[in-house]
Amino acid sequence: MTSEGTSGRPAAEPKQAATVLLLRDGAAGLEVYLLRRTRGMPFAGGMTAYPGGGVDPRDGETDLGWAGPAPAQWATAFGCDERTARELVCAAVRETFEEAGVLLAGLPDGAVVPDVSGADWEEQRQALLSRELSLAELLADRGLLLRSDLLRPFAHWITPRVEPRRYDTKFFAAALPVGQEARDVSGEADEAAWLAPASALAELAAGTRPMLPPTSHTLTQLQAFPDVAAALAGSPPQPMEPISPVFEEAPDGKWAVLPDGTRIRLAVPLPS
Fold first, then answer.
1. N or C, which end of the chain has less CB nearby within 10 Å?
2. Which of 222, 225, 270 is nearest to 248 (CA)?
3. Could you read off the pLDDT of 199-236 as tens digits, one per residue?
4. From CA 134, how far away is CA 212, in angstroms rounded?
5. pLDDT per residue over 121-170, tens digit each?
6. pTM for this prediction
7. Do residues 54 and 203 lie in contact, with contact meaning Cβ atoms separated by under 8 Å?
8. In terms of residue numbers, what domain contains 123?
9. Buried b / exposed e across 116-135, counting CB within 10 Å, b at 16+?
């Protein structure tokens, strides 16, 4: 039986996507890198989000240099097949470089690449964005390995069936590598900032920083960790249980209701 979405139409098939909670230790504790998506974008325009996006079919290339947990281990964490797991990890690394200028890669001797901000790096980042270059080609050209050990599984969300655009999104956590700096290079954002999770949530409550439920919920989860080390050590049970909320309209507002009963107030109208 086919599940139905809006207006009785069959629900859209969710696209595989990856997003990264890029973390650092600030003066007052844990901080996370957040982007505000430009208004008018077809999905989540004006919303605060993390770097991330859909998989590129070339993210599944098997000739990519790889260090850290193998795709089979990520497949166990995500409850998916090995190729999908490879695509998701590669998408997480690629999107973090595309949208934040941070590359989770290293040399064969184990060192993490320290600086990726030069003009030559920028040329390759732009080629990734235009899909003229794949992640595998970039790493091979530089003699680098993807460092999957720098990532941790954090959450798994699936867009509700009623939405016309749906994503099956795996959330990763990663520490900002020593020697690298996150840069506001995303053409899809009009603001980028490091914020304490509590500060971002306070702005959400004040109505000045709208965000979708997956972002606010993961920020709430991050509040439990005093620093990056604690956040990376606090990986969820595997395989992760996907969260797909349902929408509810009540006298006190519009809500996304999670499978465990948690209710998150919506800052955007319900889908019609």
1. N
2. 270
3. 999 999 998 999 999 999 999 999 999 999 999 998 77
4. 30
5. 999 999 999 999 999 999 999 999 999 999 999 999 998 888 888 899 99
6. 0.89
7. no
8. 11-234
9. beeeebeebbeebbeeebbb
